[in-house]
Amino acid sequence: MAERRRRKRLNGRLSMLRSIVPKISNMDRTSILADTIDYTKELIEKINNLQQEMELGPNQLSLMSIFENEKPIEMFLRNSPKFNVERRNMDTIVEINCAGKSSLLLSTLATLDSSGLEPQQCVISCFNDFAMHASCSEEMDQRGLANPEEIKQALFRNAGYAGKCL
Known about the structure:
By secondary structure, the protein is an alpha+beta fold. It has 5 helices and 4 strands, in the order H-H-H-E-E-H-E-E-H. A hairpin with a 4-residue loop joins strand 3 and strand 4 (130-138). This is Transcription factor bHLH93.
């Protein structure tokens, strides 16, 4: 019984590591630990670079050197906002990935509600950025169903982005 509890705790912690570390090559325990160690070393190196630049002073500060090993397209794709709304049968699927800000979850749910959508299942992550995957149903008292593109634009504006979402 004690061994079973120990394994359950270990598997839970490995699952947490797998969800936090961005680059996991394989799902076995050894790979998860090795990739976590590599990621931790990268973070320590970035912290050291930041500390060195802070010692240089504000006139010589160059934050882009922290990301010198990052590929620009990967940084852009990782940080660019993504909003997707599509109808499937009787449900509407909403997917959002964008920069996090306070009260974004509440305002997003209010936007869905004002669009006549009621979330049935929702997976939300606010770890680094804001991510939401929701399956919504249309409210019965809603006369005209909102266009998915209109919902997408409303969510985009709600998240604090100006202009139109592509």
